[in-house]
């Protein structure tokens, strides 16, 4: 269909606006990458925008050679993997159980679960509860409180209810019980939704700094995002390097005197952001489909 002159102009304007928005999002990322790959002292003088002036990898050598950061990465990876799979299992089981319309007190249970999403007891009662359960200052404080998401459960419930009842009824007529129905019918058909919810959950675990800052005081248990939050608040380089820095890397580097707090900060930001960014391209189609399913079938 041929577009009118006004429609053509409008499309060009839309393209220009969207391109400008993309650049506004992309530029800060490229700027941080350039600073992290640039000599710290040179970057402090200015003039680094999209490409490093004095290329160096010393910032990443220091960051990746720091024992605290490596431990923080292990904590973050472990909580992301365990928390994501655990959350998906709990969410799927609850949603599948509540999808049976003949379940006793089903409406009451759904109402109670919805109430917990709308209201909460606050941070202080939450902390007291975690302390009473013995979760404070343990790795499991990152896992157990986030195993169940009301929002994810309702999205999953709507998806399961959209599965044709004839499939489930035919399986039951063939003698399939709830477990077999879940494993052989519901889970295979729910893979796009599980991938989308898994991405939501994984990103939430990876980016969470709050739990490590308020519920953990042991340095060997903080996730990388909490370390980054502490790093951004630091005022001097010694607080960042500490005694766990890769001294061998520093000793064989003639650029030690050119390292600045800002260049180390940017390197940590890139190290913490790149892994989760690499996941998005592989799950993007499930991400979009999951959002559409959750909105249309609701």
Automatic annotation (TrEMBL):
A Pfam family it matches: BPD_transp_1
UniProt xrefs under InterPro entries: MetI-like (IPR000515), MetI-like_sf (IPR035906)
Residue intervals of the ABC transmembrane type-1 domain: 69-277
GO cellular component: plasma membrane
Domain of life according to the entry: Bacteria
Membrane topology: Multi-pass membrane protein
GO biological process: one example: transmembrane transport
Ranges annotated as spanning the membrane: 12-34, 73-97, 109-128, 140-160, 262-283
Subcellular location: Cell membrane
Keyword set includes Transmembrane: yes
Keywords assigned by UniProt, alphabetized: Cell membrane, Membrane, Transmembrane, Transmembrane helix, Transport
Family indicated by similarity: Belongs to the binding-protein-dependent transport system permease family.
Protein name: ABC transporter permease
Organism: Paenibacillus borealis
């Amino acid at each position: 269909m041929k577009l009118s002159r006004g429609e053509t102009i409008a499309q060009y304007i839309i393209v220009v606006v969207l391109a400008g928005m993309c650049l506004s999002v992309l530029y800060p990322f490229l700027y941080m990458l350039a600073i992290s790959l640039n000599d710290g002292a040179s970057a402090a003088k200015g003039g680094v925008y999209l490409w490093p002036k004095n290329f160096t990898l010393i910032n990443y050598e220091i960051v990746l050679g720091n024992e605290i950061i490596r431990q923080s990465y292990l904590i973050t990876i472990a909580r992301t993997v365990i928390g994501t799979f655990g959350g998906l299992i709990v969410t799927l089981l609850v949603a599948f159980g509540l999808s049976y319309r003949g379940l006793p007190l089903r409406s009451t249970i759904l109402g109670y679960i919805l109430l917990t999403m709308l209201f909460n007891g606050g941070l202080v009662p939450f902390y007291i509860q975690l302390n009473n359960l013995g979760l404070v200052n343990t790795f499991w404080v990152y896992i157990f409180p986030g195993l169940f998401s009301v929002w994810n459960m309702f999205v999953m419930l709507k998806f399961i209810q959209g599965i044709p009842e004839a499939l489930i009824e035919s399986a039951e007529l063939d003698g399939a019980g709830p477990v077999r129905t879940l494993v052989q019918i519901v889970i295979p058909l729910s893979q796009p939704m599980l991938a989308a919810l898994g991405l939501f959950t994984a990103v939430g675990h990876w980016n969470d700094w709050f739990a490590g800052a308020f519920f953990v005081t042991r340095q060997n248990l903080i996730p990388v995002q909490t370390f980054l939050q502490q790093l951004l608040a630091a005022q001097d380089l010694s607080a960042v390097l500490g005694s766990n820095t890769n001294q061998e890397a520093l000793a064989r580097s003639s650029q030690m005197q050119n390292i600045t707090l800002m260049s180390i900060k940017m390197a940590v930001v890139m190290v913490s952001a790149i892994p989760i960014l690499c996941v998005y391209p592989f799950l993007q189609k499930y991400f979009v489909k999951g959002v559409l399913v959750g909105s249309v079938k609701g």
